Amino acid sequence: MTTKIAISLPDEQVAAAKQAVKDGRAPSVSALISQALDHRLAEYTMADVVAAFIAEDGEPSAEEVAWAKEALRTTWD
After folding, report:
1. pLDDT in tens, 42-67
2. What are the domain boundaries of the chain?
3. CA distance 68 to 61
4. Which of 4, 27, 56, 68 could cysteine-pair with 31, CB 3.0–4.6 Å?
């Protein structure tokens, strides 16, 4: 189910969203905004997970951070 709502955006964002659709990078402005919102909400969820890990186990060491950065880099390359 979907619900139609009205939102206000800066003119520049509207133009960029319409251009993304025109360029074929998004199926529609609504889909682009929905995807962006999903992405942002997932970031909040991941931040909560990381905060819980830190609360339970403390801050990661420099070595652990370096390992994680390398692991994520090789995953996304």
Report:
1. 988 988 998 999 999 999 999 999 99
2. 33-77
3. 11
4. 27
What does the pLDDT look like over 15-41, one tens digit per residue? 999 999 999 999 999 999 999 999 999
Q: How remote is the C-alpha of 66 from its chain's centroid?
A: 22
Number of Cβ within a 10 Å radius of residue 66: 11
Contact assessment for residue 4 and residue 10, using Cβ atoms and an 8 Å cutoff: no
C-alpha–C-alpha distance, residues 36 and 42, integer Å: 10
pTM check: above 0.70 = no
